[in-house]
Amino acid sequence: MDSFLEVTAIVSGLASVWLSRRESVLTYPVGLINTAFYTYLSFKYHLPGESAVNFYYTVMSLYGWYMWALKNDRQEKVLHITFSDKKMWITQILFFAVIYVVVFVAIISLKNLFWEGAIPAADAFATATAFTGMWLMTRKKVESWYWWIATNTASIPLYYVKGLELTAGYYLILLVFAFWGLATWKKKAHVA
Fold first, then answer.
1. b/e map of 92-121 (b: 16 or more CB within 10 Å)?
2. Which residue, 153, 143, 130, 155, is CA-closest to 57?
3. d(Cα 105, Cα 97) in Å, to the nearest integer?
4. Residue 107 pLDDT > 70, yes or no?
5. Maximum mean pLDDT: which of 34-43, 94-103, 121-130
6. What is the per-residue pLDDT across 8-31, written as a single tens digit (0 to 9) for each?
7. d(Cα 77, Cα 140) in Å, to the nearest integer?
8. What is the mean pLDDT of residues 103-110?
9. CA–CA gap between residue 191 and residue 157 (Å, rounded)
10. Residues 31, 56: contact at Cβ < 8 Å?
């Protein structure tokens, strides 16, 4: 059963990232399949940070779906791909730092109670970069792709050492997609 869930999560995740690169609102409903299955699998395989991030993705997918679907009175998209200004860069770095510290401390504190096999620093890093990337993705910020690159880079070894080789391979493909998405969104971006 876990293999079926993992494969389904991988396929829906790849489809979701491919759709996000194309700036399609379908990114979010397709991504909900991925996040629901990975929330369960991450928790089961003692990756509490990744479980939390997938639950967060689920909530943010609903928000992103709403934001990307917004149209003005002339039925034009309200949200466009843009670069972050200096204030947004500072905000995203602070957001990342706070999430990292909170997740790291939580995993360390609960490790002996629930998650003996947890890898606190790596899990917290992957979680904090993912939280930041998803938040920026809902706002259509080009920089979201940099955070996805960091998330995918950290997640490959994290899932591999947990025995989820298919998922590690999935994150390798997502890493390639993230570079592709970054290049595409840089070309489409409006100056803020």
1. beebbeebbeebbebbeeebeeebeebbbe
2. 130
3. 12
4. yes
5. 94-103
6. 988 999 999 999 989 899 999 999
7. 12
8. 86
9. 36
10. no
Q: How far apart are CA 37 and CA 43, in angstroms?
A: 10
Q: What's the CA gap between 105 and 169, in Å, rounded? A: 29
Closest by Cα among 160, 100, 90, 101 to 127: 100
The token pair that represents 58 in the structure block = 């689920």
d(CA 116, CA 113): 7
The domain segmentation of the chain, as residue ranges, is 2-188
Phi/psi of residue 82, nearest 5 degrees? -140, 165
Tokens of 94: 């602070």
Mean pLDDT calculated for residue range 129-153: 96
Any idea which residue has 């979010």 for tokens? 28
Q: Which stretches of the chain are DSSP H helices?
A: 2-21, 27-44, 48-69, 86-110, 120-138, 144-161, 165-188
Eight-state DSSP code of residue 141 = B
Residue 78 per-residue DSSP state: S
- Phi-psi label, residue 57: left if phi above 0, alpha if psi -120 to 50, beta otherwise: alpha
